[in-house]
Write a structure and sequence with these properties.
Elements (H helix, E strand, L loop, with lengths): L2 H5 L8 E4 L2 E11 L2 E10 L4 E6 L3 E9 L1 E6 L2 E6 L3 E4 L5 E5 L3 E9 L8 E4 L5
Antiparallel strand pairs: 1-2, 2-3, 3-10, 4-9, 4-11, 5-8, 5-10, 6-7, 6-9
Length: 127
């Protein structure tokens, strides 16, 4: 239970993390010239959501691999399901709600790719 405290000074990217909405694990982290690419597998638990937010430095592509939910993209809400692909540009406001456990592959592209590149507009929003 104290593992994060013990290894905090070691450096490097966190490869797995549990969050209020579910969890993620990093599948790959690469650099192509000056652009970083980070690939994660995320599990958004049923009835949970990603906050309505935007990023200043990165764009994202979400490939929904299981489950169903509601996408909140630049003020419009729409349904998403297995097989859907969502592209989120730099500065685009976005959020995701899970009607059932929802799994997705997220590809982040930009520089720098840091967890702090999140500007939250609404923590909780209704689908």
């Amino acid at each position: 239970h104290r593992l994060k405290d013990i290894i905090e000074g070691v450096g490097g990217r966190v490869m797995f993390e549990e969050r209020r909405w579910g969890n993620y694990k990093v599948l790959d982290h690469s650099k192509y010239g000056s652009t970083e690419v980070l690939t994660k597998k995320l599990t958004l638990l049923s009835g949970r959501q990603f906050s309505y937010q935007y990023h200043e430095y990165r764009r994202e592509i979400w490939n929904i691999i299981s489950g169903e939910g509601v996408l909140y993209l630049d003020g419009a809400k729409s349904r998403v399901k297995k097989g859907d692909v969502v592209s989120v540009g730099v500065g685009e406001k976005h959020g995701l709600w899970a009607d059932s456990d929802l799994e997705l592959i997220e590809i982040q592209m930009g520089t720098p790719l840091i967890e702090e590149d999140i500007v939250r507009l609404e923590i909780d929003w209704a689908p």
